[in-house]
Amino acid sequence: MTYLSPLGYLLGIEGAALLRGIREGRADRAFVEARIAEIRTLLDVPALAHAEGVTARPGTISAADVYREWAPHYDAPGNQMIDFEQPVVRRILDGLPVGTALDAACGTGRHTSYLHELGHDVVGVDASPDMLAQARRGLPDVDFHQADLHQLPLPDDAVDTVVCALALTHVPDLDVVLAEFARVLRPGGNLVISDAHLLTSYLRPTLARRPGPDGHPSLLTEYHRPLSAYLAAALPLGFQVRHCEEPRRPSHSFDAGIAPDPLPAHMSWDLLHWCPEASAAALGDSPIVVVWHFQLDGTGTG
């Protein structure tokens, strides 16, 4: 069981701000004393002191359950992961030769649509029927399949490009999935991956969701990995690194002039207005996603 506390989260942000400031040489005496004073203030705020946390049970909700709820709203403005990830992925795709492309874990089809616009013959694959319904609605001429990344419905050497965006955090075995990508790629083919950054999982923990069968709120199991894990899975398959980028959250995205508002009615991490300076120090200029561009060995020997 995991207890998620609004006050506990804010104190964690204060602590992260102090540790990062010390590590990066920005924690002068005024900064440290301001953090300590703010911690005392937060502890004395009645709305925070008496705010009930949530006790959640990990692993009692599936990715399919989450995406069923997300599907109608996934592409709405304000999805920070997409805002940071999409420009980098598209810049890489712009430089690749046009051919046959697979959008693996295509979701609502945002990268599928872009690949189609670039002239690729695109196939979309996703495990969520609800996300696929959104994709088919927007792209009726594209071939979509409901399938798992561990067993792609494509023959060997079928595509020139594979894109897999913001999905591998749901995959327990990275080796198996990357081996499938290598199987369906032609020699010399390109693999473009984006994923939530490991640091994000510490600074913005997974939210509790609706109660599971036992009545407790649920936590979706996610697999956040260090950068070395992608290399360990990709290099033995014959993939070569062409590019790696970690888009960062700008420090100016935290406005120190925002006044505190009442706590949200539902559990949320949208609490940073209580400590904007600490939030900027802890979260600002921190990587939010990682984007990889791999190319498969051109000899076909892997």
Strand order of the largest sheet: 5-4-3-6-7-11-10
CATH class of the domain at 74-202 and 223-249 and 286-302: Alpha Beta
List unreliable stretches of 5+ residues.
255-267
What global shape is seen? globular
Instruction: Briefly note the CATH topology name of the domain at 74-202 and 223-249 and 286-302.
Output: Rossmann fold
The share of residues in extended strands comes to: 15-25%
Annotated CATH homologous superfamily of the domain at 74-202 and 223-249 and 286-302: Vaccinia Virus protein VP39
Order of helices and strands: EHHHEHHEHEHEEHEHEEHEHE
The count of β-strands is 11
Share of residues in helices = 25-40%
The CATH architecture of the domain at 74-202 and 223-249 and 286-302 comes to: 3-Layer(aba) Sandwich
The helix/strand class is alpha/beta
Largest sheet: 7 strands, mixed
Distance between the termini: 43 Å
> What would the average pLDDT be, to the nearest integer?
88
Number of helices: 11
**Taking Cα atoms only, what radius of gyration do you get, to the nearest Å?**
21 Å
